Amino acid sequence: MPIGFDSTFSFHQELLDYYNSNRRKIRSRYNDLTRKFLAYNDSEENPHAFLRKPQFEALEIYVFVKEFMDNKQVYEMFDDWRHRRNHFSDASYYSIDKGGQVEIFAKVTEEQTDVLFKQMKKYREEYSNYIYALTMGLGKTILMATCIFYEFLLAKKYPKDVRFCHNALVFAPDKTVLQSLREIMSFDKTKVVPPEYAHVLDSNIKFHFLEESGTILHTIDDSDFNIIISNTQKIIVKKSRKEVSPAQKLFNSSPLLSTVYGTGDDVQSDDVWDDGTLKDNQRFKKLCRLPQLGVYVDEAHHLFGADLEKQIRSGKTNKTTLRDTINLLAANTSIVACYNYTGTPYVKNQVLPEVVYAYGLRESIWNGFLKDADPLGFENVKNDAFLTAVVTTFWERYSTKVYEGLNPKLAIYAASIEEAVSEIRPALEKLLVKHGIPTSKILLNVGDAKYTKDDDIRNFNNLDIPGTEGNEKQFIILVEKGKEGWNCRSLFGVALFRSPRSKVFVLQATMRCLRALSEDRLTATIFLSKENYDTLDEELHKNFNMKINDIKKPPSGNRHKYQVRVLPPPRKITLKRVWHEYKLHKKEYSAPVDFKLTDIDLSKYASIMYGRDSLARDTTVKEKNIDTLQENMRYSELSLSGEVARYLNISCILAARILRESVDGISAILKVVNRYNEVMDDYIIPTVFHALFEVTSELRTEDKELTLLHEPECAEYYEFSAKDDLVITNRYPGFTQDQLKKSFHADTYCFDSIPERECFIQYITSDKVSEIYFTGMFTSNQGDLSIHYYDPESGRVRQYYPDFLARMADNSYRLIEVKGDNKIDDAVVKAKQAAAEELAVASGMKYLIYAGSHIINSHILAEGIAPTQQESINV
């Protein structure tokens, strides 16, 4: 992978930046109806706009891709962007300035854009395919409905414009989400559609809700403005493998059936159709007769599961996948585009290239669109102790709270119906009695009519309705309920002790309590076993590129956004760019090779079996060597010589000679290698290599001038979020004017921790320091001071930004890093340290790592104070 490759780069962010920079010019090109539609939903123009910021931004990009980019495929837009063509060209009316557009490759390398382009092009579909990623709770269903309404309005006014959808097929992954999509049918259109146009939609839209498997699709061929809501099982073409009966042969060839259900050209001629399959095929054939079809996939991450990346671009013909169903539709009718709505743009921490808009979980919490969360993990506790801690903590936090007339709810997940009924409910009832809480506040919903009655289902559906019996239920016992499609805004707690079969269930279930309620900044509580806590951390990292610690947010009022402006003149420094050049030199074979086989500890290769004679008697553990069970390759002198020659690309004759003439002798070599084949890789091959070759390494350097902080692109300032007590500005009254002149290449420094802030204060106030700059906050290519290092955890080359750069009074320079005491010996920190030391040595600098406690408890620049072991790195 190229050193400049940035795995966090996302084209969708570049699209949004481009749109925001040219917003007025772009919107001036839209149809009048489009401008009115956007203005009605824009809170800057309409104070009563219904859509929240993420929904409206996604709608803007939706319209931008359609009307401005003409429904281009993502790889085509990306190719124009990276080559500065068309709208992205320097000469374009939409370029940021006529003298030249923003330097695109300041952020990403040309090698990276080429890699991404090839990936996009390789996995493209025959139709445009877009992903809109809005985290759970931001209203993807409402956004989808708004997009469809926009499509139909424009299609009605401009029926010949092929960019607009005349019909919409909405896919849901399961029955739960399918029911939630009914909101599209009941949604008040005037919330997102100007009232004067809403009646146009009401008089033209025809809804078709395929809830039951036997439902026939009643659409008129070649008609417009149909919205079909279904899941893939109701649409997909299936094959029946039953034996063909004479009656089936007769009726399968009937011209009448061909007329009603189609000729079946999309399947093999030997397929056999039963009644259920014919109905499925009827729906598919009816869809094929609808023009200008837009396909909308809800909860795409759940529908494709862990294989989203593979399935969403599947090139295989698999008749059971949604992607293949859509491909079959595209081959039989005109599909305008496929719009996938999902909760995350990430798959295994990688951004999917088809994403055109994303709004993440972290941003949603920080900006108040979701509740905050306090995840609690419990280790080495039994079920009863866990439940006691859950109920006690939940009741202490929420028993006196009421929001919008709703009582806070706690969802307790059981691993099975048996556990829910026989263990959790009795234990919960005892705990509630102990706390003086009525047991009538318990609701059991386990999907079994024996335990969950109709009244329970009604109450479950009324949890968010004030004044109902459902609102009085506050302790909800569930079994695999409440993933996608369950919207309970009054849910303030989730408890999950047992580890479920699916890891993603931990993420889905725990995130249910984050939906916003009221205008206040509220915090929910997540109760997990230690195993589930670790699973949640892992799933957050894979699906949202964040950790549990990123969820936790300081109390309201303690953290604010700061506008950070660059102060002239630009601060520059000259450092050495460091790299290694390796050369391979051949040597002549002249002396016998000593493999030192007698010195090898062969016990590490041995296979051992441990056993006891009896469990009833306290006997000792016995060890037995079972090397005989190993499947080792048996080499002869010729085959071993050939294997060595193949590894090292040398002549077989030379390899045989080296082995025969060795100090150990060929017989001893064969005996050891045939007993443990690993010896050949660990000792024989390396020893022969060093006898014939020599590797030399040369450290190369070149001077490179770096700017510590660049002016922001297309903006007057950078924006950071920080705790108020960790912010220091260039007007800080605690510093003298001379001290202020030592620093501040930006007018505001937002520190991450108290030790960082303390380190800065000690350096800037010391007479031993001439200049000190906080560089650790500018980690998004805003400055040039970064160090490439090999990350041992991810196996990738990454960039590291030291916290501080200091010039001392003696004109020496220091690169400074501040770390928590528990991070000093971390493998990644050590890797960063090794790379920084190498750069510092070449540049004649000193690299220091300070432990946080050392900074807090001492004067780190005072005379007579010995540096800590971690901090002393003399260059």
Characteristics of this structure?
seven-stranded parallel sheet; 875 residues; 4 domains; Rossmann fold
Question: Could you describe the 3D structure shown?
Answer:
It is a single chain. This protein is an alpha/beta fold and 875 residues long. The protein has four domains: 128-359, Rossmann fold, CATH 3.40.50; 371-553, P-loop containing nucleotide triphosphate hydrolases (Rossmann fold); 582-698, no CATH class; 708-857, Trna Endonuclease, Chain: A, domain 1. The chain contains 33 helices and 29 strands. The strands form nine sheets. Strands 3-4-2-5-6-1-9 form a seven-stranded parallel beta sheet, with helices on both faces. Strands 10-15-14-11-13-12 form a six-stranded parallel beta sheet, with helices on both faces. Strands 24-27-28-29 form a four-stranded mixed beta sheet, with helices on both faces. Strand 25 (787-791) and strand 26 form a beta hairpin. Helix 5 runs antiparallel to helix 6 (110-122) and helix 23 crosses helix 24 (530-544). The longest helix is centred in the N-terminal third of the chain and has 18 residues, at 140-157. It is globular, with a radius of gyration of 33 Å. It starts with 10 loop residues before the first helix and ends in an 18-residue tail after the last helix.
Write the SSE topology.
Layout: H1 11-21, H2 23-27, H3 32-41, H4 53-68, H5 74-83, H6 110-122, E1 128-134, H7 140-157, E2 167-172, H8 175-180, H9 182-186, H10 195-204, E3 206-209, E4 226-231, H11 232-235, H12 246-252, H13 255-261, H14 275-288, E5 293-297, H15 300-304, H16 308-311, H17 322-332, E6 335-342, E7 346-347, E8 350-351, E9 355-359, H18 361-366, E10 372-378, H19 383-398, E11 409-413, H20 417-434, E12 442-445, H21 454-461, H22 469-472, E13 475-478, E14 491-496, H23 503-510, E15 523-529, H24 530-544, H25 548-551, E16 559-564, E17 572-586, E18 608-611, E19 622-625, H26 637-648, H27 652-660, H28 666-675, H29 678-692, E20 693-707, E21 718-723, E22 727-729, H30 737-740, E23 748-750, H31 754-764, E24 769-774, E25 787-791, E26 796-800, E27 804-808, E28 813-819, H32 827-843, E29 846-851, H33 852-857
Parallel strand pairs: 1-6, 1-9, 2-4, 2-5, 3-4, 5-6, 10-15, 11-13, 11-14, 12-13, 14-15, 28-29
Antiparallel strand pairs: 7-8, 16-21, 17-20, 18-19, 22-23, 24-27, 25-26, 27-28
Helix pairs in contact: 4-7, 5-6, 19-20, 23-24, 26-27
